[in-house]
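Lab notebook, page 48
Experiment: co-folding of the full assembly
Goal: obtain a model of how the components sit together before planning crosslinking
Operator: M.T.
Materials (sequences as entered):
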Amino acid sequence: MSRNVVIVGAGLAGSRCAQTLRAEGFDGSIALVGEEPHPPYERPALSKEFLAGTREELLLQGSNAWAELEIDLELGVRVERIDTTRRLASTSRGDMVWDALVLATGARARRPAAFGGSGVHVLRTLDDARRLRAELVPGRRLAVVGSGFVGTEVASTAVELGVDVTIIDLASLPFELTLGPEVGRLLADRYRAHGVALRLGAGVESVLRRSDGAPRGIRLSDGMELGCDLVLLAVGAEPAGELLLGASVPIETDEGGRTGLPSVFACGDVAAPWSAELSRHVRLEHWTSAAEQAAGVARAILGREPGARPTPYFWSDQFGLRLQHVGSAEGWERIVLDGGETSLVARYLAQDGRLVAALLVNRPQQVGALRRELAPELLAA
Amino acid sequence: MYRIEIDRSLCSGFGSCAELAPGRFVLGPDGIAAVPEAETDDEDVLEAAASCPMGAIAVYDERGRQAA
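Observation: model returned without errors.
Model output:
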């Protein structure tokens, strides 16, 4: 039985793992080690309410609650390396020993080497969001590179703040591969109607700079130049798997978050748990996946069943739309649409007609029914 | 005894609360979660609150401290 759990990473997954250990009655020691100086906080609002300045409070729980749960919060501490034979973590503040180690190191925003320097932002952490927020001033021109959820949510917030926004992406439509061309076209039209310029089918070559070093534009792969005052790189995140694997690759686990090494677990954005349904390891960067995996790891540490792995789910709020997606965004063959731009259900069907995923636009009242249709074992709510 | 509060403006109708604590949480015709009884002894409400992706559910203990 483990008496001494060290959790590396104090994001949602690490925090939820620590909380679940206590909720399940674990009375050994728990150290929750975070590289950022901030107590554990919620990230989803960073691109939305926090960036808009309408919400400041992001803490996962009140700062006293960690002490009350006797969870030792080690903030601003970087784990330099781990020794899985001696069960030792070397940190910037000394060595820690463990009986069970949880790697919840998350992911880092991708920042291609050619795009360093001032005025070029990424958005992953609270400090990133503060830096970006300080620059979102009415009338300034923001170039968003990448039309994924981070890019489009920031575009939505920035437009509301009076910023002039252009989204650049190599794809010919946003979300074309995951949500399909019909939905991609609807969303692209929505973005344009809200005043966002789209430069699709274009890559980014370099950032052009003024003599004082601030961005003045972007050179695109088609040779065109686009004027801007600041840049957001929203081109995905890479798993922080270095401690175990020496590289920025996902840590593969079984369904309970166990790695191949005894007493070493992984959960959250860094982890790729085995999916029995898809017969391979799958890394999902969703809030609900991180929360569920973390609770599963806590139970695995205690030798209990991890519990069922629920249907993948994510949501996005942008341009007055609440998008909710249930199921797996791959492996569909055709789409059945019901509704229009501001109220829509898109059903994604496999070749045999089976429902594999659904997207709802401003239809929260249907998400429960679609989750049950995708996973009939869920209890009727 | 726990007291449950739902911020209905945050609720997105995900429905995990109604699955983890059936009867304590129900989804209304608008798809938004509601609590038939604001007070309960059922500990399942703690896990239900933690499962909410929108952070829309708060559970307080008898001393008024937030328990989830």
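Interpretation: Chain A touches chain B through 25 residues (CB under 8 Å).
Next step: discuss with group before ordering constructs.
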